[in-house]
TrEMBL record:
It comes from Ancylomarina euxinus. InterPro entries: Cys_rich_dom (IPR004017), HdrC_iron-sulfur_subunit (IPR051460). GO terms for cellular component: plasma membrane. PANTHER family: IRON-SULFUR-BINDING OXIDOREDUCTASE FADF-RELATED, IRON-SULFUR-BINDING OXIDOREDUCTASE FADF-RELATED-RELATED. Residues 24-110, 150-237 form the Cysteine-rich domain. The lineage of its organism: Bacteria, Pseudomonadati, Bacteroidota, Bacteroidia, Marinilabiliales. Keywords: 4Fe-4S, Iron, Iron-sulfur, Metal-binding, Oxidoreductase. GO terms for molecular function: 4 iron, 4 sulfur cluster binding; metal ion binding; oxidoreductase activity. This is (Fe-S)-binding protein. The keyword Methyltransferase does not apply.
Length: 265
């Protein structure tokens, strides 16, 4: 496939209109829909799903925010309004399995929607991709990447929030051979500075912003790449690398982009 061609992504309403059902709903998330940088990640993951020839679809314009930011900011009423609207749509399509590329969407759909009647098998894309690699469904070409070094930043809502540490590392190792661990990693990893709705407010008084501190952890490893698995982390670490004037030396890649590149999609 030409990398610049339009990607054919099934829309749930169109699938349902044909009387068909999908195995997976890909929950794109606000960042995947609206953030120019993370749209590239969503495209990469969609390419992988197409490569696997899976029965999947996205909600398209019917997808709304999960309500994560509203809940973290303390607006429980808005969260429940958003959640119940989404649950009505998901149940209307009889959705059983949801794959998320955003840990915030994943955490909210998996751990908070059941209290409001939204019961689904919610899958994080790193575990999904790790499983597909182990099954031999994704044959990754690691030759172009074997001389490059990489570290991995644990997103809070993926790591400490849901104990997903191994899957993203397994994927990075499958392509790059090894992961250079930062001094603060896994359960001791430092937040990128955007979680808990901090992404949407001004910085508080202090000597240094969190994303700068975390970027320094990355640069300390003297690597060519840093892998992330969250749109908030992608934004904060990319900004940190630019702040340090290291964007020509260190590239921030999402896990989905790493797999897509190794498949030459």
């Amino acid at each position: 496939m030409n990398k610049d061609t339009k990607i054919d992504i099934p829309i749930m309403a169109d699938v349902a209109a044909k009387g068909e059902q999908v195995e997976y709903l890909y929950w794109v998330g606000c960042a995947g829909a609206f953030d120019l940088r993370y749209q590239k990640v969503a495209r990469s993951f969609a390419k992988i799903l197409n490569h696997l020839e899976l029965r999947y679809a996205v909600l398209g314009t019917e997808e709304s925010c999960t309500g994560d930011a509203a809940k973290r900011a303390g607006n429980e009423m808005l969260f429940q309004m958003q959640a119940m609207q989404n649950i009505e749509i998901l149940n209307g399509y009889n959705i059983k399995k949801i794959i998320c590329t955003c840990p915030h969407c994943y955490n909210t759909l998996k751990n908070e929607y059941p209290d409001l009647g939204g019961h689904y098998e919610v899958i994080n894309y790193t575990e999904f991709l790790d499983d597909q690699i182990k099954k031999g469904n994704l044959n990754l070409d690691k030759n172009p990447f074997e001389n490059l070094s990489i570290t991995y930043h644990d997103p809070c809502y993926l790591g400490r929030g849901n104990k997903i540490y191994d899957a993203p590392r397994n994927i990075v190792k499958a392509v790059y051979g090894e992961v250079k661990e930062m001094k603060r990693s896994k359960s001791s990893a430092l937040c990128c500075g955007a979680g808990g709705a901090q992404m949407f407010k001004e910085a508080e008084k202090g000597d240094k912003e969190v994303f700068i501190e975390r970027t320094e952890d990355v640069l300390e490893q003297k690597v060519d790449k840093v892998a992330t698995a969250c749109p908030f982390c992608m934004t904060m670490l990319t900004d940190g690398i630019k702040f340090k004037n290291k964007e020509t030396e260190v590239e921030n890649l999402d896990i989905a982009e790493i797999v897509s590149q190794a498949l030459d999609l």
